[in-house]
Write a structure and sequence with these properties.
The chain has a single domain, classed as Alpha-Beta Plaits. The protein is built from 2 helices and 4 strands. It has helices at about 20-35, 80-90, and strands spanning about 1-10, 40-50, 55-70, 100-105. The longest helix is centred in the N-terminal third of the chain and has 15 residues, at about 20-35. The two termini are about 15 Å apart.
Length: about 110
């Protein structure tokens, strides 16, 4: 069984600025490639998150990192993902990074 594991990284910083393209590319080179050298995908996404402090939904542009693994969802090693999320949160002052694990029907055709 295969799994798709993804992290969604918000780009909006607490001061209102965004993680820039150059900052994101540097993060991918230094943090993502060494953890997932077999390959990954990055998708630009737009969404929102609820800010409990203000009571508002905050819209922001985000990046979604996805890796397909030849392992069942119950057996995914989450440590590399947790480490990557922690690194991003520290670098870019983020409260959270969303982790998603989904069973996947993978075929190479």
């Amino acid at each position: 069984m295969w799994s798709e594991v993804s992290l969604t990284f918000g780009r909006r910083k607490p001061d209102g600025r965004e993680v820039t393209f150059a900052q994101w590319e540097g993060f991918v080179r230094s943090e993502v490639v060494p953890r997932f050298p077999e390959g990954f995908s990055v998708i630009d996404v737009a969404g929102g998150w609820y800010d409990a402090k203000s009571g508002r939904t905050i819209e922001e542009r985000s990046k979604r990192l996805s890796v397909v693994l030849d392992v069942s969802p119950d057996n995914v090693d989450l440590q590399p993902w947790r480490d990557l999320a922690a690194r991003y949160k520290g670098l870019f002052q983020q409260e959270a990074v969303m982790l998603t694990i989904t069973p996947a029907d993978v075929q190479f055709i």
